[in-house]
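Exam review. A common question shows you a sequence with its structure tokens and asks you to describe the fold in words. Practice with the pair below. Do the first one on your own.
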Amino acid sequence: MVEPESSSAASGENNQPQATPTAVAFLGPEGSFSHILTQLHFPDSEVTLAPCKDIPSVFQHVRENPGSIGIVPIENSSGGIITPTVDCILEDSSAYQIIEEMTLNVRLALLGRHGGEVKRIYSHFAPFHHCGEWLAKYYPDAEQIVAASTSSSIETAAAQPDAAAIGPRDNAARQGLDVLHFPIEAEVPNVTQFFAITRAGLDVLPSEDSKTSLVVMLPDSSGSLCDFLTPFARAEVNLKRIESRPIRGRPNTYRFFVEVDGHANSPKVRQALTNAEAVSESIHNMGSYPASRRYES
């Protein structure tokens, strides 16, 4: 059954969640794009910042610390969906709530040492996707090594005289490196979208730009996905994302992460959800939340 949204369904201005977090966990270490977004989103806040080694650790921090918020990337315009975030959402969807989606315009730099040979380049997988053609042109012989985050890749490169890393320009001074190139592929849009997550149950102010995220289980039968999607098309509700993962112990059965435009209590979305629920095993509402905040890195 689709869980009801709390409080009013009327549209309003884009607002922060109606609570001050006790701590904000993010994919670290400090200097990552998740850290940059966290600082931009909470510029005057005195909350504790908690860098985490990986995305599952951000979810764990939120689960174990009531009142905290987690900042996790969900999609990059070049690298695509961030798989660990979707996996964590689907693994225990009832424990979490999405309270906002934010966008960061990512500008990348190659950090290393002037005059040195670059044999290895470290970065997160998404920058490698974005910079693939540029790297093939200027550093065709350099080995590309994927790291857990851009900031950790810069830390690793800083310890090797013949290595460089792709990441935020401001990390050069932090790690004692030089900015070899900036920006990389500036003419190609490169944005990363992030979710702010918390433990389920937080009231979020209504917004004109709301999105709604759902975790869906469908019958293992022919046409079940089409049956689920049809009510949204008929109600003229736009679907933004749909990702599937197999359910452990149930061969050929999948759980879906779905994002739609609009608030769950708006007439169109409510009607679509009612009709979709009739052909689904279950639909869990992860929250309706504002999605218009944009930042520059």
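Now try the second one, then compare your answer with the model answer below.
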Amino acid sequence: MMYSKYLPTLINIALAAGAKISEIYATDFDCETKEDGSSVTQADKLGEEIILRGLKELAPDIPVLAEEAACAGNIPDLGETFFLVDPLDGTREFVNRTGEFTVNIALIHQTKPVLGVVYAPGCCKLYYGAVGEGAWLRMVSPGTNLHDATPGKTIEVRKRPYKGLIAVASRSHCSPETTSYLTKIGAAKYTPAGSSLKFCLIAEGLADVYPRLGRTMEWDTGAGQAILEAAGGRVLVLADGKETGHLCYCKQDRDYDNPHFVAWGGPA
């Protein structure tokens, strides 16, 4: 089945959620703390409502694993094909007003991300991709109709350099283990970034590697991984510092959290 037929509608859903989130971003919004210690705002909740409503209209038979619903215990029987939603990835960046937050929608099929949309309204960047078909970037201001936005351009990872790897890592969650790993692989430059933008910077050819040696959830990574892999990259599990296979999804036995991983651009 050609799932890429869903992309245009997924893009419009992400843009609608991004417009609402941007409205809230411009206000003096409140921030709450969830049971797991993470932050949540009205933007997370209203963004997810918009996305879930849009996905139900688009494909009512495809289940959805969405962050806020999952945190409330609402997890459907996912099967082999499901949507994966993080309405506001980088809530900490949202609260700190860095602009590095994103709307994320992915489609997972047989444990692999096959479609992804990442919209970063704070920097007006819309990334989207379908594995096997390509990845694209468009500049879209919040509230702008897609037809009035700049034309999309194809993006792809760059060839991994022999020396001088450019790394990206979490702005808010970088650990000593991450720093040690970056030294081990010979990263010449490290740029901090928030949310799923790290995957997208590699997909765009602006960086080479993103290691994550800390906890993430599936909804944090699905859309970004789909776009990166559509652009020619890959995301591999790290176990004891060794790459052990591709990062997969629907890990019910782990409560949908991810092992440590490393995202790479092009081959050496």
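Model answer, second protein: The longest helix spans residues 7-25. The first strand starts at residue 31 and ends at 33. Full marks require stating both points clearly.
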